[in-house]
Known about the structure:
Strand content: under 5%
Mean pLDDT: 88
Number of helices: 6
Number of strands: 0
Low-confidence stretches: none
Largest sheet: none
Distance between the termini: 30 Å
Number of domains: 1
Helix content: over 70%
Amino acid sequence: MSFTNEQLKELGTYQIGELSDEQLKELAISQLEFIKDIVKSERDELANEYHTGDALCYPPDWYDSYVYPLDRTISRIEDIITDDEDSDEDSFWN
């Protein structure tokens, strides 16, 4: 299944996180960068809210429930981008 940038933008950040590695690998590098920026923007906003907000409103498990999944999604996307770039370099030398 392929996605347009508009469809990717309409997906929520947590829905992006639910995409399988296979689905992510089908996306172009530019699309992976695009969704990484979307997820990172929301992650940064939530992390800032957690760190600067009232401690009574944000118990420790709040970070684990809302920010950590976005960290994992960003890492997965970066891993796929890196793997793809590595395979491009390998094909250049072969």
